[in-house]
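tool=predict chain=A
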Amino acid sequence: MEKQVLLEKKEGYAVITLNRSEKMNAVTKQLTKEMYKAIIDLKQEDLKFLIVTGAGHRAFCAGGDLNELHGEMNAEQAYQILHPMKEVLYELATFPVPTIAVLNGQARGGGCEIATACDFRYGAEQASYGFVQGNLGITPGWGGGTLLYHRIQNDFAAHWLMDAEMYTAEQVYRIGWLHKIIMVNWNEKLFASFLRKTNEQMRVFKRQYMEHLDLPYLSEQMDKEVYQCSLLWESDEHKEAVRNFAAKRKR
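tool=predict ok
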């Protein structure tokens, strides 16, 4: 079985790549397990930072794979599938060194949640980004909505979640979600300033940053988001939205 998450260790940093380019790097149960293991294993490594990116140029991640995250699940079934990815995002958010999402293409729905779990986001100029879950009768379901309020100004976060539209790189740069707008063919020079720091410096910087994340309550807040999303999962509005989306893809 082909690996859905690739792990590459470089001098001073590591790269996790979502490896389902033919499916716009959509998240499956297998990808979730592989990503969680990669993050836990990397916690033991002496790194300066961690990069998360996607394979190909079309998408960083298009969210959950609808073959598994389909609309016919009840609330309990939805929670059981959603919650493991929340654990992935929590481990990313609390990783001991800085994490950078390098958005090689569009990030949609859960893809934006993964990117938001990272400390910093560098996004391709021509790509678009959106928390579109609100158009599917649900809310973010992996804890990424909760994290968004920690990453950007509260009213910007609330508006984006409720608007549920795809934004340009320039738009999300203006609201502070993107830290750099980049070309698709990025290389190590993009991280030159980080690489000049020592490993211990980067750990100290990350610890300082995490002091502002309300850590004692963060996991609980993210769990609550997963639960709320799972309750909406069995709504008629969500089922209809998923059916309509699937029908559009078949045309």
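The mean pLDDT is 94. The beta strands are 5-9, 13-18, 49-54, 59-61, 99-103, 106-108, 120-124, 128-130, 167-168, 180-182.
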